[in-house]
Design brief:
single chain, 76% helix, mainly alpha, Rna Polymerase Sigma Factor, Chain: A
Length: 188
């Protein structure tokens, strides 16, 4: 049954019955999940069914199945590794963000607020922005205008408005790092 020699009706049911569980066991050794292994083997058998007319004969059906399943398992594992790497990076970024927020709150010196008002601190930081950046930031956050309105009013692209807002946030975040939780409270 391993070799199909010439054009003849292939009994896929017989091949499926004879090899499905063996192929699933083979796939499961690598992908570890019963469900994933079954999906891979089902896909390979489906592909075999679809390609039955164009298969080059003679064909060693066992070698064909093992090769196809091996390749699918390799692709599956590559995707899993990539997804895991991305999840790990996101989790690390999240951990660093939480840590930064923790330190920001822990070291927030509320006594400084008695020396200067929050509005004065924020005003100084906004005044330190580059002129165009400051103008766009004020129109958006203080005057409450939408980015599209600002772009039309200043005869610039929306992309320029977005870029300038990004610059403003970055500079203000750096400038107000000691007051960052309060900065967020005021702006949102």
């Amino acid at each position: 049954m391993g070799m199909i020699q010439e054009k003849q009706p292939v009994d896929f049911e017989q091949i499926y019955i004879a090899y499905f569980s063996k192929m699933k066991h083979f796939a499961k050794e690598y992908v570890l999940s019963d469900e994933d292994a079954e999906n891979i083997v089902q896909d390979v058998f489906g592909e075999l069914w679809e390609r039955k007319e164009i298969l080059e004969l003679p064909i060693n059906i066992i070698a064909y199945l093992f090769t196809a399943i091996k390749n699918r398992c390799v692709d599956f594992l590559r995707r899993k590794i990539l997804i895991k790497d991305i999840e790990d990076k996101l989790q690390e970024e999240y951990r660093l963000t939480l840590q930064a927020k923790y330190y920001s709150l822990e070291y927030l010196d509320l006594d400084i607020l008695e020396e200067e008002s929050i509005e004065q601190i924020l005003s100084k930081a906004i005044d330190a922005l580059p002129e165009k950046c400051r103008e766009i930031f004020i129109k958006n956050k203080i005057e409450g205008k939408k980015q599209k309105e600002i772009a039309a009013e200043l005869n610039i692209s929306i992309n320029t408005v977005e870029t300038q807002m990004g610059i403003a946030y970055k500079k203000l975040k750096t400038e107000l790092k000691d007051y960052f939780p309060l900065f967020l409270f005021l702006l949102y």
